[in-house]
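In response to reviewer comment 3 from the previous cycle, which asked for concrete evidence that the modeling workflow produces usable outputs, we include below a single protein chain processed end to end. The sequence was submitted unchanged, and the resulting structure tokens are shown without manual editing.
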Amino acid sequence: MKQQQQGTELIIHVSDKLDAPQREALTGELEKRNGVFSATFCPVGNHLILVEYNNKGINSGDVLGYVRNKDITASLVGPI
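The workflow returned the following structure tokens.
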């Protein structure tokens, strides 16, 4: 498990309907990315992902690109 660190937070909107195992796999894979501290889906609606990351090692476009490279329709809502 990664040590919890202070980072930048952003929200990604996922247009595709993902079931629970798909959401869990996506957040687990995001958390394995260098610079990503945590990734969790909002429990209401399951279309928003909150991602905390180190903006010195990865940027919001990189995080969004990773989600899109999984053939998932997604857009950046913005930083928190």
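The longest helix spans residues 20-31. We consider this sufficient to address the reviewer's concern, and the full set will be provided in the supplementary archive.
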